[in-house]
Amino acid sequence: MLTGAQLAPFLLATSLITLSPGPATALIVRHSAIHGFRSSVAVLAGIELGVFCWVSLAGIGVAGLVAASPGAFTVLKIVGAIVLLWMGIQAWRASFAMVSGPVDSELVGTQRAWRGFGVGLLTNLANPKAMVFCLAFFPQFIPAGAPVLSTTMFLAAIMIVIDTAWFVCLALAAHRAKGFFARAKVRRALDRVAGTVFVGLAARMVTLVR
């Protein structure tokens, strides 16, 4: 078991990383503001499951093998860029087919929740930056002699709790402002900003090196 002194730097680093804007932030704010809180929770669940998968693979060494293989890393990088580019295009397309008012019925909300979960999960699983992060970040906080897998999973659980708490607060804030985001002009602007962010991240991912 880690001591408080060993956990403190991990908690600080994790909190700072969580607060840093990224594709997860853009995804959750957009889904909560436009499609509702339920949709954003589904996106968050997918994102955190992706984190859990990469951490698990890093803990047992599989992620390290992928990162060490130039071919596998390149394929993952290209897939990640395609996913982000697709999300950017979808957001831009949505901005050109905009109407005012609420957009989600119960049925549509359920469909959007599953779709959001899949997008959140795919965003992380196809992201080599998430894999490299897990490989580089967690070992720094594992004390010498501690069991690697169980300690890594323990730290990952803490990270997921912190992530979830922050993103739920963010989603609730965006959801409460849903009346503002229901305006066609505002929603169009949000979609275009999110779409531009995703396209930019896709371009950046293509140039990612290990």
Automatic annotation (TrEMBL):
Domain of life: Bacteria
Protein name (record): LysE family translocator
Bilayer disposition of the protein: Multi-pass membrane protein
The keyword DNA-binding belongs to this UniProt entry's keyword annotation: no
Transmembrane segments: 42-67, 74-92, 153-177
Pfam short name (any one): LysE
A single GO cellular-component term on record: plasma membrane
Native organism taxonomy: Bacteria, Bacillati, Actinomycetota, Actinomycetes, Nakamurellales
Subcellular location: Cell membrane
GO molecular function (one): amino acid transmembrane transporter activity
Species: Nakamurella antarctica
UniProt entry keywords in alphabetical sequence: Cell membrane, Membrane, Transmembrane, Transmembrane helix
InterPro entries in UniProt: LeuE-type
